Predict the 3D structure of the following.
Amino acid sequence: MSSAGFRFGSERGYPLAQAGPDARFTESLIDSVAGVLVGYGSPRLASLKDSAGLKSALTAFLYSSQERSK
């Protein structure tokens, strides 16, 4: 992936403020992200714990928590 589109000092787009449940954050999204990772050579999700871990990591990246946003 090229970093040509990124500018140092530019404002970040993430994390998003989380006002409540996000209809875009679904199991299908988790499956899609897992599929992309597999396409780049990562192992498939082998268990529900793997899926939960990926969901947790995506949540941490996408959304700001109340504690972090203070």
The mean pLDDT is 83. Strands lie at 16-17, 63-64.
